[in-house]
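Honest question from a wet-lab person: if I give you the sequences of every part of a complex, can you actually get the arrangement of the whole thing, not just the pieces? Trying it with mine:
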Amino acid sequence: EVQLLESGGGLVQPGGSLRLSCAASGFTFSSYAMSWVRQAPGKGLEWVSGIRGGGTTTYYADSVKGRFTISRDNSKNTLYLQMNSLRAEDTAVYFCAKDLYTNTWGWFDPWGQGTLVTVSS
Amino acid sequence: QSALTQPASVSGSPGQSITISCTGTSSDVGGYNYVSWYQQHPGIAPKLMIYDVTDRPSGVSNRFSGSKSGNTASLTISGLQAEDEADYYCSSYTSSNTWVFGGGTKLTV
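Yes, you can. This is the full assembly:
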């Protein structure tokens, strides 16, 4: 069974940093693209970033480009999101998601349970 | 990228069919057959229901179907059931090699 478990969320001041992790199990992690998608409280979904299975190709939404860095450690079956220069508008539940098939990009299935990031002074 | 446009809410009675629209531009929905739909129940992570405009992942009921015409994609749910009540989001690949979601539609059954 595929399992995705996010961690690392919490309360951080504006301008601060946080690193999210997503521990994966139940599938060959290195064969799948992975993504981060966030959802502000009471709001819709926003795609944040994605990374191909090999880890060398990454993609970012304009809203986080230059501030967030996605990475993965295929030896540890773990996905990361380093978030710097955090703003109030980054407050959201952050989900990690696996791609549906190998060699695809953008069919997010399944998703983890999410971790809440709150940016506030 | 701007979010795709979805109606805020739709409703239907059990057994009926409903359609949710998702409007973008030629740089996303209209330019690629890479539209997907997600279902989200309150407090639960989203679930992929449709990908590549019309395809269903294994295990998703055939009551869910997708289509696209021009810059607008649609999700149709036939034979509405109480458990279909949820929020639905469309998503599309974009010319910037990124993904954009719609604002979401609340379905009331």
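Two things worth pointing out. DSSP finds no helices and nine strands in chain B. Residues 5 and 25 of chain B are 10 Å apart (CA to CA).
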